[in-house]
Every structure is written in structure tokens, then in C-alpha cells.
Automatic annotation (TrEMBL):
<dbReference type="GO" id="GO:0003677">
    <property type="term" value="F:DNA binding"/>
</dbReference>
<dbReference type="Pfam" id="PF04014">
    <property type="entry name" value="MazE_antitoxin"/>
</dbReference>
<feature type="domain" description="SpoVT-AbrB">
    <location>
        <begin position="9"/>
        <end position="54"/>
    </location>
</feature>
<protein>
    <submittedName>
        <fullName>AbrB family transcriptional regulator</fullName>
    </submittedName>
</protein>
<dbReference type="InterPro" id="IPR007159">
    <property type="entry name" value="SpoVT-AbrB_dom"/>
</dbReference>
<dbReference type="InterPro" id="IPR037914">
    <property type="entry name" value="SpoVT-AbrB_sf"/>
</dbReference>
């Protein structure tokens, strides 16, 4: 895990931090890309935002989030089924 310290600065009426180019490059993002910021306890985690797609009628983002969580939780078992 890479750790750096940055100072909170003001950008117009907002506060923010700048991120080193190398870290952004390693994350696979560049100027104009969307990122997700997730709060876990007292930490903020910056992730590359998933690409947005038009969802079929009747399917919600919550469903896909639930599906992703379940697939992550059962990843080992699902991968084991591939080899059967």
C-alpha cells in the first residue's frame, strides 16, 4: 500500500486534495475521468468509477450493487464451478 500526506486546500468554495500523477496513472485514471470516493470508518478510498451503462427496464443500480457484493462474497465458490 502506498501512503502519502497531502494538505487540504481550497478550490473556489470547495475543499480538496491534489493527487500525484503517478498514483492516478497507477489507478488508471486521468484528467476528466470519474472516480468513486468511498468512506470506510475514518478512511476515504478513491477508486476508478465503473462505466455507466443504460440499465434494462426494471433493473436498478441497487440490484447490480447487490449482485456485485454477492459475487465478491462467493467468488471462490463461483470460480470453482467454472472448473467442473
Amino acid at each position: 500500500m502506498t501512503s502519502i500526506e497531502r494538505r487540504i486546500t481550497q478550490f473556489g468554495n470547495s475543499l480538496g486534495v491534489t493527487l500525484p500523477y503517478k498514483m492516478l496513472e497507477d489507478l488508471g485514471v486521468s484528467k476528466g475521468d470519474d472516480v468513486q470516493i468511498v468512506k470506510e470508518g475514518n478512511q476515504l478510498i478513491v477508486k476508478k468509477a465503473p462505466k455507466r451503462v443504460d440499465l434494462p427496464e426494471g433493473i436498478t443500480e441497487d440490484f447490480f450493487q447487490f449482485l456485485d457484493e454477492e459475487m465478491t462474497a462467493h467468488e471462490k465458490a463461483l470460480k470453482g464451478l467454472v472448473n467442473r
